[in-house]
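Preliminary data (for renewal application), magnesium ion complex.
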Amino acid sequence: MSFQEALNILAQGGVIGLPTETVYGLAGDATQSMALAKIYALKNRPQFNPLIVHGYSIEQLQEYGVLSDMALKLAKSFWPGPLTLVVPRTKNCPADLLVSAGMDTIALRIPGHALAREFLKAYGKPLAAPSANISNQLSPTSKAMVLSYFPDLCVLEGGACEVGLESTILGCTGDDVTLLRPGGTSQEDLESVMSRPLLQTKGDTILAPGMMKKHYAPRTLLRLDASEKKDNELLLGFGHAPHADLNLSEQGDLVEAASHLFSMLHILDKKALETGVTSIAVSPIPKNHLGLAINDRLSRAAA
Ligand code: TXA
Ligand code: MG
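Predicted structure:
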């Protein structure tokens, strides 16, 4: 596949296979909600894990996330390379809320693969990319492996991945730096640049978005599987819902619904708080395909 073909697919909200030095990614435009929903649908994940946003320069990524002095020091020392920094989203972050799974943080990295960076620069906007495997299967380190999972995907040829193991993920939301996932950049190398120890999380519990302290939950009560809109309620519809204040997908399309989930919850929560409405009713969402992830997220938000 040519560069130009891949660029066109992304501009139209499609997804491609992107080689990086760690593993191949399943990449889509980080600013297009439909592209992100397609990534989740293809990976067949029952949950919305937040995605890593890939860029070609620190300046470009600073439009998306706020780098503290320490984060900037780490970025300057290890980018391009197998290091991901989870930082607060900027106030007007152009990335869709779905990349952050509704949270107020964003994971950023500049891949250490020359072709990937050249491609990212040509595209101009950052790409969200999880590893290009189906959920619970091995991460792909060659184009052939990506095609074994997704035979119809357009995959850029980038050779075998040099690192072959995912990036190290650090949480840099405050002054402290926490290791969220060990990976291609060693703890020793990180600590020698930081001149202090990395904080550790227990196991990988923090990586499950539902367990993260800062995950986005609406402040308004949610009433799920609602067949009608009661007094003093807003309705988030799905399918035919004439009284809906907003509708996740009038056509009842689960991919479209996923693409709207976090942004619509956000808008309705704000509206409810402003108008004194006490709950948001949500139409029933089928419990198959992406509906599983949508229901998972809704029940967490309602808990
Ligand atoms: O090497 C890599 O990092 C590869 C290549 C393609 O760049 N990507 C990758 O993505 O491993 P993925 O989706 O398989 O893993 C991303 C991890 C997830 O476990 C997710 O929970 C975490 O990053 N993550 C992303 N955004 C986060 C956030 N805002 N807060 C906490 N964790 C986050
Ligand atoms: Mg993965």
